[in-house]
Amino acid sequence: MANIGIGGALLIFVIALIVFGPKKLPELGRAVGSTLREFKQSTKGIMDDDHDKEK
Question: How many C-alpha atoms does 4 have within 13 Å on its Cβ side?
Answer without folding.
Answer: 10
